[in-house]
Every structure is written in C-alpha cells, then in structure tokens.
Design a protein that fits this description.
The complex is a heterodimer of chains A (595) and B (172). Chain A is of the alpha/beta class. Chain A has 25 helices and 18 strands. In chain A, the strands form five sheets. Chain A has a five-stranded mixed beta sheet with strand order 7-8-6-5-9, sandwiched between helices. In chain A, strands 11-10-14-12-13 form a five-stranded mixed beta sheet. The longest helix of chain A is centred in the last third of the chain and has 18 residues, at 457-474. Chain B has two domains: 10-69; 81-165, Glutaredoxin. Chain B has helices at 10-23, 30-41, 46-56, 60-69, 89-93, 96-106, 150-165, and strands at 81-86, 121-126, 138-140, 143-145. A four-stranded mixed beta sheet of chain B has the order 2-1-3-4, with helices on one face. In chain B, helix 1 packs antiparallel against helix 2 (30-41), helix 3 crosses helix 4 (60-69) and helix 6 runs parallel beside helix 7 (150-165). Chain B is elongated. The termini of chain B are far apart. Classes of the chains: A alpha/beta (595), B alpha+beta (172). At the A-B interface, helix 1, strand 10, strand 14 and helix 18 of A face helix 2, helix 4, helix 5, helix 6 and strand 4 of B.
C-alpha cells in the first residue's frame, strides 16, 4: 500500500512490567522491521515509535498501541516474533491483526476508571520532556508562577480538598499553608517516593510513566511555600524510576524549569535525588529526614512537625508522589473540577495497585467513593481460577483485611478506617479461599518486626512477640489463651509506640481477629488450617484409585519422596515430604490430596 | 563482621580516595558514600568503612551504625550471580516462599546463609520490587522475571548454572 502521509504512531509499554515481558525487544523488532527493505521510506518516515510508561494492565504485557490517523488498535501479549506480521498486515496492509487485539476484558478493566494522575502515563514517552509539554505539561507551573500569588495557589489546593496520598490523608493545602507561614529563609520540599509497602507500586509507576508531572508539582509547591531546594527520596529498589527521574530533572534544568530564575520569574528551585537504602521506616517523615541527613533512619517525637522544623532544622513540606502529581491537573482544571470527583470528605481519584488472586491485575485509578466490590469484580474481573473470594488486604503492613460481607463499602479515608483497614498508599491484594488469614497476619508481623527501627520498646519487642505468637499458632502449637494475649498486646503496641510504624503494626492482627476469628480458633483448637495453607498442619497423600502412574509427580518432587513403577499407583513417603505442593499442582488426575 | 580484606588493592584505594574527594567532609553524605563503596567492591568491606570514616573525621562506630541500619548494605562478598526473590505481599500469596526454597536448594546455598560456598550464587529476598501485577517475581542478575513458577524457576537455574560453567547443560 502506498502511504499517503498518514501519521502512524506505535507505543510500546516499557514500565518495569513491560520490560520484564520483553518490551525493549518488541520495540527493537519494530525498528528492525520498519527499517527493512521493501518498506516504503515514506512509511518509515511518517511512523513514530516510542516507549511509554505503565499502561496499567501489566498482566497483558507487552501491550502495543498502533495508532493510524488517530485510530487506535491495542495489542496484548506481544512478543518480538509477532511484530513482523503486525507491520506487514496492519501498518503496511492497513488491516489490524484481530486475533492479537485486546478483548472485552481490556475495555472493562478501563471503562470504570477515571484517570487524572495516570492520564499521561502509558501515553507519552517518559524520557522526552517535549512529549509532556506538547500535552500542556509545565503549563500549570507557568500559570502558577506568572499569574498567581502563593496564597492563591494554597487556597486552590485547600479548596480542591486534596489529601495526602501516602496514607495518612492530611490535607495538602493546610500543610503548605503551615510551611508558608514560617518565617522566610531556607525551606525544603521533599517528595516521598519511598514506597515501602509490599504490594504497592503506584509511585514507581507514576515516576516511570510521567516523572515531569511530579517535578511540576514540586515546582508549584516550592513557589507556594517559598522553598528553594527540593529532594526526591526514592527507593534504590526502583532503578528504572530513578533513571527516568534523573533524566527528567536534567531536561527540566535545560529548559530552565528548574534552577535559577525559573521562567524569568526570579524563583530559584532545584531538585536532588536521594536514594533510600532499604528501610521501610523511612517512609515516616521524621525518619526520612534523618536518612537524608545521613543518619540512621529513626523517627523522633512530634511536635515539632517537619513544617516547622524538618530537614537540617528548617521548615519542610513532605508530600507523596501521587499527591504532587495531582497538583498540575488541579491548577490546570481548577479546584471545583477536582472537588467534583470523589466523596464529601475524600476528593479526587486514587491510584491502586490491584494484585493477588484477581483476574485482571495492574495499576488502576478510580474516583474516591467507588465500592471495593466494583473494583474487584468489574475492573478486576473477579477471582482467578473460579475460586471463592475471601478478603482484600488494603494498606499493607499498616492496614487490614476487609472480608466478603463488607465488600460493598465505598473507598474513602474515613470508611476504611472504620472497617479496620486504611486507604494507605494504595495496595489492594485480593485473597481467595486458599489464603490463610492467620498466615497473612503472620506475614505482615514478620515484616514489621524486621523493619522496626528498634528505638522504642513497645514496637521493637511487641511486634516480635506478636510474630512469635502467630508463628506458634500456624505451627499448630497455639494455646487457647493466645487470642486474648494477641488482643491485649496489640492494643499496648498501638497506644505506646512512638511512630506510625508501631502504632499501626498490629492492625493486620486486629482486623483478621475481628473478621476471621474462626480461622484462628481452628488452628488452635482443632490443629487445622481451614485454607490448607499452613505447612505444619497439612499432609499430602496420593489416592491409589485416581493415580494413573504417569510419573509426573515423581519427576517434579524435589526430595524424592514419591516412588512407584510406571502405570501403577505411586506412593508418597510422608517422612521425607517437605510439603512444597509441587505434586499437588502438577497432577492432572486430582490423585494428590491436601488434608 | 568478618574480616575479608585485610588490605585494599591500590586501584580500589584510588577509587575510595576519589569518593572522599568528591564528598569532602559532608557528614550528610554517608548513605551515598556507602552506596558508592558497595558499587566498587560489591559489598562494604570493613577496611573501607574505617578508611572513609577517618577521612570524614567521623567516629567509625557512627559510620558503621548507619551502614548496618539499612538493608541495602552487605558486609560479606557476594556471589558472581545475584538472584533476588521478591517476598512482597502479592508474591507471597502467589507462592514466593516455595520458589525461595527451590532456589536455595538448587543453587546449593547452605541453610541460614545467602551465598553458595563456591561464590557462584547469592540468593537474597527483598521486601517488594513493585512489580506485583506480574507476581511472583524473581530478579536474576538485574533482569526482572515475572509470573514465575516451580517449573520456570528450575529452568532458569539450569540456564544459570550452564552459563556459569561456561557450557550449556540441560535443555531450555
């Protein structure tokens, strides 16, 4: 086909998920195919191809968009060897390869989402400042710096109702105002990208997909509070996000969007990147500050709050990545628009990392107030493998589990708190009938007892003791008195700990005790794990009547616990078995049982 | 802390001196300095800690105290291949514990340790790499592998061992 100057755009997802699935190889394959002889030079010239950040639906990676004259076709599960056919049939021939296109579930995954923070993620090349600016990027900073006073900006942010997206939900405008009112002098803006909650990757995706939005948010914040220096404190475990952030900072400096006399307004503001070094507690404001100062990342008592005395003793505003990424959109579209999204007290949208035993895993953005049920069953497509939904864990180690009968609850800061969970940074881990709730609580307490900084006794010793009790219960050695002890100790740790880590660490225990007490009781009284997940309480057995002697389990058993001749029923030696479940998973005849 | 390098090599000393020159006596830069030390040696040797602490005019104990606080820093030499298993929540509920025990066994890593005696492999766990939607995740020499299972991880180990021996064993 002759190319008549049609504009062709190819977008390949290259967030961490996309790269893991082979995004770079797919992009290379497009380069190679389009550069080949036989492809009209005019076509090659009119066809732009670039990497984009997270598209959200990471489980379908590599996702590829082919946009011809604004008509978009999205392909899923693309491998490099599939590219030739897409180029030949679709880009040259004009007929999309229907069988590789996304299906109905891709649309249902996106239909109910409202994208604000993620609106440019997955659309623009995160390493190209022009891509961001072409869509209006840095226009909000220009508008703020050149036409508004700091007080007017703070008023807009307050009126929008934006609350901190890192978990606690403190009103952002109020925080800015408090820092503004401090005597003039050196002030700091810190972007908290120390996304330590296991099961959460919103901040990573935002920085990988659209780092300039975060920088623009920081710039507006700096102008509003009168800060000249900024830091992004980011986890070293996110190498791609760090790389893209550094590229973005470099580009912003070149365009005089960071540095001295920004946009000719006289404002000086620059941003440095500080790499975290693997300490969960550094998500806490005062610990984060200690870490930037080069000390052990231990929290201190508040007040004084960081807005009065923070980094190096100076007034400091610490905002989460997602909070800052909202700012450009609020300035651009107005406080009323933002406040029209969400519920009465929780405004705007929230990004969640939807993972676990749900069909459609990925990154989603929904208006506050959407029900948990809608998220899991409409967007998430329900539970994978036809299993039964049990609970959803929200808020990581500081949060709790919401059981099936409360899944109609609407998402907002107050609601979730009442139910024993929190919005938190936005991790939603869906659990099914195979997940043991005592084991889930144990998992989180193991996490917090390891991450406790050790400064205060209730947290350092209390989380350790809580973990030991849970470990005892899941090993079948729990005592009847353990439940009362768990409750008492949890309350003590909550009320007596110094910082948020200790104050919320018992939440996973309390919420599972509240909603799944029967599972605890089954472990203690009957020495049974109802979900058949706790290794000490289960045994595997091969049922002769179903076993065909195919040998699959024998081959997969890592310790040689299974024996038997071909085509005769096999036997499993329980004394050697390490209960890894490999035989159970591989048997096609359901001859292996777990009891 | 195990004494593993009594004397630092001249080339490494030069690199350390360069680090000192760039950071001066900035006590706020302890963490980036430690990150650079680890970049040079693959771990944080005791001699390097002592050398830099003295240069910074900071008590060695304080410098070392910062180093041990953060999980990122290692105090023993690491294997030639580093395998990082994610044990975040999503990976946990999708069976990461099983993968970790398979990895430990297949890579020949002694109980309670993280590196094989022949220094070929280090197996470490990390709280969350933020790739939860493709859980469970294992990172092999900085390459992220998603949606792992017992079968795929065993194949990856065979590949690794083959590559490490300089010859391809087993089939992929």
């Amino acid at each position: 086909m002759e190319n008549n100057g049609e504009k062709i755009e190819i977008k390949v997802c290259m967030g961490t998920g996309g790269i893991a699935a082979g995004g770079q190889e797919v992009l290379d394959a497009f380069e190679q195919q389009l550069g080949q002889a036989g492809i009209a030079a005019s076509l090659d010239k009119n066809c732009t191809r670039h990497k984009v950040g997270c598209r959200g639906f990471c489980s379908r990676d590599v996702l590829v968009d082919v946009i011809i004259d604004e008509h978009r076709t999205t392909y899923q599960y693309i491998k490099p060897d599939m590219v030739a056919r897409i180029v030949e049939e679709h880009i040259v021939g004009g007929a999309p390869v229907a069988e590789w296109e996304v299906k109905e579930d891709y649309r249902s995954f996106h239909d109910r989402q409202v994208k604000v923070v993620l609106s440019d993620c997955g659309e623009i090349d995160p390493e190209d400042i022009d891509a961001y600016m072409d869509g209006g990027g840095y226009g909000s900073a220009r508008k703020a710096l050149t036409t508004m006073t700091p007080e007017e900006i703070i008023e807009i942010v307050k009126k929008s109702g934006l609350r901190g997206r890192g978990g606690a939900g403190f009103p952002t405008g109020v925080k800015w105002e408090a820092a503004r009112k401090q005597p003039p002098g050196l002030k700091y803006i810190i972007c908290n990208a120390d996304e330590g909650d296991p099961g959460a990757f919103m901040d990573r995706s935002v920085i990988e997909g659209n780092p300039h939005a975060v920088l623009e948010g920081m710039l507006v914040a700096a102008y509003a509070v009168g800060a000249e220096e900024g830091y992004v404190y980011i986890r070293a475990e996110y190498p791609l996000a760090v790389e893209r952030l550094k590229i973005a900072i470099g580009q912003a400096r070149e365009r005089n969007l960071l540095g001295r006399n920004i946009m000719g307004t006289g404002l000086n503001f620059d941003v440095k990147v500080k790499l975290g070094a693997g300490a969960f507690v550094c998500g806490e404001e005062t610990a984060l500050i200690a870490s930037i100062e080069g000390q052990r990342g231990m929290p201190r008592a508040k007040p004084p709050f960081p807005v009065a005395s923070g980094l190096w003793g100076r007034p400091t505003v610490i905002n989460n990545v997602e909070t800052l990424a909202n700012i450009p959109y609020i300035i651009r579209r107005g406080a009323d628009w933002f406040a029209s999204l969400g519920t009465e007290r929780s405004k705007g949208t929230k990004v969640f990392a939807l993972t676990g035993k749900v069909k459609n895993t990925g990154l989603i953005e929904v208006p506050m107030g959407m029900s948990i049920k809608d998220i899991i069953f409409s967007i998430g497509g329900g539970i994978e493998g036809g299993k039964k939904f049990k609970a959803v864990q929200m808020g990581g180690p500081s949060g709790g589990c919401i059981p099936e009968h409360l899944v109609g609850a609407r998402i907002c800061y107050e609601n979730l708190m009442k139910l024993g969970a929190i919005v938190g940074s936005g991790g939603m881990i869906v659990l099914d009938e195979d997940d043991c709730m005592v084991n889930v609580a144990k998992y989180f307490l193991n996490f917090t007892q390891m991450e406790s900084c050790g400064k205060c006794v209730p947290c350092r010793v209390g989380t350790k003791r809580l973990y030991e009790i849970l470990d005892r219960i899941t090993s079948g050695e729990g005592k009847e008195s353990d439940l009362a002890l768990l409750e008492k100790l949890s309350k003590d740790v909550k009320s007596a700990s110094l910082c948020g880590l200790g104050q919320t660490a018992p939440n996973p225990v309390l919420s599972t005790l509240q909603y799944f007490r029967h599972e605890y009781e089954a472990h203690i009284l009957e020495k049974k794990c109802p979900a058949k997940a706790c290794k000490a309480l289960i045994t595997y057995r091969i049922h002769e009547e179903f076993c065909r002697g195919c040998g699959a389990c024998m081959r997969v058993c890592p310790v040689g616990a299974i024996s038997g001749r071909k085509k005769t029923p096999h036997t499993l030696n329980a004394a050697i078995c390490i209960k890894c479940g490999s035989c159970f998973d591989i048997c096609k005849f359901k001859a292996v049982s777990k009891e | 802390m195990q004494k593993t390098c009594k004397h630092l090599k001249a080339a490494d000393m030069e690199k350390l001196a360069d680090v000192c020159k760039r950071y001066g006596k900035d006590h706020g830069a302890v963490i980036p300095i430690l990150q650079e030390i680890q970049e040079i040696f693959g771990y944080v040797p005791e001699d390097a800690v002592n050398f830099i602490a003295d240069e910074l005019e900071m008590p060695r104990s304080r410098f070392y105290g910062v180093a041990t606080f953060y999980a990122q820093f290692h105090f023993r030499p690491r294997g030639r291949n580093v395998i990082t298993a994610c044990s975040g929540t999503a990976c946990h509920v999708k069976g990461s514990e099983n993968l970790i025990s398979i990895l430990g066994r297949e890579l020949g890593i002694p109980e309670g340790q993280d590196t094989s005696p022949d220094m070929n492999f280090t197996l470490e766990r990390v709280n969350c790499v933020g790739a939860c939607s493709i859980a469970p995740v294992v990172i092999i020499n900085k390459v992220v592998h998603g949606k792992m299972n017992a079968d795929r991880i065993t194949k990856e180990v065979i590949k690794l061992k083959g590559a490490d021996d300089g010859k391809q064993r087993g089939k992929d």
